[in-house]
Each structure stands twice: as C-alpha cells, then as structure tokens.
Amino acid sequence: MWPGPTWRMVVLAAGLIPLAGAAMAHGVAQGDQGFLESAAGVHPFPFMYLGAKHMVTGYDHLLYLAGVIFYLRALRDVVKFVSLFALGHSITLLFGVLSGLHVNPYLVDAVIGLSVCYKALENLGARGFPDPRLAVFGFGLVHGFGLSTKLQDLDLSRDGLVANMIYFNIGVEIGQVLALAVLFTLLQALRDRPALPAFAQNANVAMFAAGLILFGVQITGFFVT
C-alpha cells in the first residue's frame, strides 16, 4: 500500500490538473492573441518573451521535463535533454504553423498526458526506451504540435512569420532552462538526504496521477466534442 503522503499528493494532482487544463493547456492568452494577430514583420524580443512565457506557464511541459531531469546530477545534462526537447518542439511547431497541418488538439494533449505517465513510470523503475534521448526528442515533437494547433486558429501575418516562430522557439528554450535550473537546484539540495527515496516515490506517483488525469480529461473531450 502507498504511504499516506502519496495519496495526498495524488489528490492534489487530481484537484489542480483539470483546473490548470481549463485555464492554460496549450492555449494562448487573450491579450497575447491580439498581439500575435496584429504582428506584421519581425519582432524578436516580444516573440522570445511569449515563447518563454509559454514554457514557464505550460504545466504539461514542465511536468514532463521535471520527470526528465529528476535524477540528473549535472547541469550540462539538464541543458542537453531540454535542448533535445526544444528541438523536437521547434520542428513540429514550425512545420505545423507553416504547412497548415492541423492535428486534433485533444489527441495531442492526451498523448502529452501519457508522456508524463511514461516518464513517471520510468523514474519508478519501469523499463523505458534504450536511449532516453530519443524519447525526449520524440515527446518534444508531440508537444510542439500542441501549440501549433492553437496558433493555426489565429490569423497570423505571413510577413516575418518564419523569423518570429524561430524567435518564439528561442524563448521556449530560455524559459525551460530557467525554470528547470530552479527545479534542478532544489533537487540537488535533496540528493543526499535520507528522505530522498520516499520523496522520489511520492513525487513520481503524483506525476503519474497528474498525467493520467490530463489524459482522461483530453480523451473525454475528444469523444464528446
């Protein structure tokens, strides 16, 4: 039987994830939509800011990447893995927006929920991909489609679009490195603590529960919408 703290963390995940999903997911804030639709020409810093904001406020991205870095001990490894994720994210974001390829957003977010479950199970000892770098890059491809489907709903100017999307992805990279550097520092403080094994189990069980709830909410939305 799981210890009591794990159940409390699962309950917390169950309460917060649907609320966060309704509020954020891969959505674009109303004020940001107005800027995106009015932006003609190249705007490096605003798009970098929006990319960083997207990453820092994207709970699904951060849940998955938190699992990725959970047992990493060197900051250079954190940068390597999150850069692979950002590369995959950038490829499908650019491809989706520029080609007009539209993927059902509910299915994309359902797979993203499963990516969180996968990483949590891997951290709990389940067998994963032989090369974890391939998994991180592959899930980055999926996560990129999540935002591209939302951006395709906006009337984006083609003037400077490629450059702006590149700057947006640079912002994504900056945002995720900053956010995960903070998390990495906190995890480093726990590395040699006796309570680490119990904390790791509880945290990853809660992460699995959050991913499963996200999957359930999104797959339900797919069938009822």
Q: What is the strand and helix layout of this fold?
A:
Layout: H1 4-23, H2 30-38, H3 44-57, H4 59-69, H5 75-99, H6 105-123, H7 132-151, H8 161-190, H9 196-224
Helix pairs in contact: 1-9, 3-8, 4-6, 4-8, 5-7, 5-8, 6-7, 6-9
Folded structure, characterized:
The chain starts with a helix and ends with a helix. The protein has one domain. Helix content is 79%, strand content 0%. The chain has helices spanning 4-23, 30-38, 44-57, 59-69, 75-99, 105-123, 132-151, 161-190, 196-224. With 225 residues, the chain is mainly α.
Using DSSP, what is the number of strands? 0
Helical fraction: over 70%
Please tell me how large the radius of gyration is: 18 Å
**Class of secondary structure makeup:** mainly alpha
How does the major sheet shape up? none
Instruction: Round the mean pLDDT to the nearest integer and report it.
Output: 81
Notable characteristics:
225 residues; 0% strand; single chain; mainly alpha; globular
Short structural description:
The chain has 225 residues and is an all-alpha fold.
